[in-house]
């Protein structure tokens, strides 16, 4: 096999199996070559991929080591994407009766969600989460794509108390915006105790739901290593129930009171990746 | 730039932007080369990728043409994966009180769902769907990954009648297994009329929910081009409310009445890809 074909093959294997560790021996066996030759191929791929920052090769030395492809996104690409997304949300006819913002179409569009997942993954990867936790329904795609980019499972908290998942932990919480008492629950089987969890959701208003998820995580002895939201509603800035979170877009502008969406690109600069 | 670096760069761009059409001019401009040289590079990549069948390059001729990477999976890899998945479902302690099968952990694990999405995409791509439709909650990751592999949006039907998405269409349906009257709804904005839709969900028992989604699709003048389920419950084989569907696993064995999970690998052979 020509070197160029081998390099295409290795690139394909790594990129189509993100986050999966391949010992060098796997490639050496498959192509019947010395590990040193494979190692040279990998250096070539690694230095080339580092230029686009759309992901990078991580090399882990030692007997249990190998190489894996970690999906990522550059700050420039992320900034452009968020500004474009804010523009899309502003230009279309998206404010519904009651002041709700319609964005379900974007939240279920893989092209959009895939990039948002890469942004959250690039920001939160240094926190080394074991799982991404969200609550049904609209946060699921966002959480799933973030989990996919990080190579970890997603965990979905249910509203109410569903019976089909065995013994579960339920908590009551007060929705910060509607002030109603609600219930959320998670199956015991869904999350082992003592894990590091990243909470991801589509929207944060007063943060009652987010605070509820944090409380639920305490029941699983989990450490919450980050909270990420696609959008925050600035109307609730003064009385939000959680503080240490990150959001990529904001809805409303406290200075003008207009329902305008802005990209919070400074968040990307602060979390340089 | 060396040819080998250029080929790695092109492979990376194509694989990290699945389903996106790149005119040859994009690469010619970026690398300051003639289109004929780029074309030779693409032939090299195309023939190499065709060997693993984990995806393939599609070349579209003409002025509006270009090249795109379509994710896929080989029948062999899909067969092995489904047999392994059935084994996982059989060996663990997954039968819950009430006879429910616990599989939420697998349904939210990107490593599992990504492959299942590739399998559904490989099977249903020839039907040329415009959107993948599912109903909340557990079918969402499956639908999303299928949509991602096909490069089309997902659409999520809601239980009940949620108020935050503008005017919507609701239908009542009778759950085939519980015989209760239920409601499902979809925002008018969520799906344009006259589309070709693929329905994807995690589980089919009597098929009342599936039949409900098909009825709802008629309200959007949509053509249902396929129905795919991860698992069917064989208990309802004799009286299922939908017939023209496909499932990858089966729960229960009519001949022995045991709660065993089997991979329906003949489905893969029948839908050769």
- Which descriptor suits the 3D outline of chain A? globular
- Reading the helices and strands of chain A in chain order gives HHHEEHHHEHEEEEHEEEH
CATH topology of the largest domain in chain A: Rossmann fold
Distance between the termini of chain A: 37 Å
Strand order of the largest sheet of chain A: 5-6-4-3-7-8-9-10
CATH level-two architecture of the largest domain in chain A = 3-Layer(aba) Sandwich
The CATH class of the largest domain in chain A turns out to be: Alpha Beta
Structural class of chain A: alpha/beta
How are the secondary structure elements laid out?
The structure is a homodimer of 273-residue chains.
Chain A: H1 3-15, H2 24-31, H3 35-52, E1 55-60, E2 66-71, H4 75-91, H5 104-107, H6 110-124, E3 131-135, H7 140-150, E4 154-159, E5 168-174, E6 181-187, E7 196-204, H8 208-219, E8 223-233, E9 246-251, E10 261-263, H9 265-270
Parallel strand pairs in A: 3-4, 3-7, 7-8, 8-9
Antiparallel strand pairs in A: 1-2, 4-6, 5-6, 9-10
Helix pairs in contact in A: 2-3, 6-7
Walk me through the structure:
The structure is a homodimer of 273-residue chains. By secondary structure, chain A is of the alpha/beta class. Chain A has two domains: 3-71, Arc Repressor Mutant, subunit A (Orthogonal Bundle); 75-270, Rossmann fold (3-Layer(aba) Sandwich), CATH 3.40.50.2020. The first copy, chain A, has helices at residues 3-15, 24-31, 35-52, 75-91, 104-107, 110-124, 140-150, 208-219, 265-270; strands at residues 55-60, 66-71, 131-135, 154-159, 168-174, 181-187, 196-204, 223-233, 246-251, 261-263. In chain A, a hairpin with a 5-residue loop joins strand 1 (55-60) and strand 2 (66-71). In chain A, helix 6 (110-124) packs across helix 7 (140-150). The radius of gyration of chain A is 21 Å and the shape is globular. At the A-B interface, helix 1, helix 3, helix 6, helix 7 and strand 4 of A face helix 1, helix 3, helix 6, helix 7 and strand 4 of B.
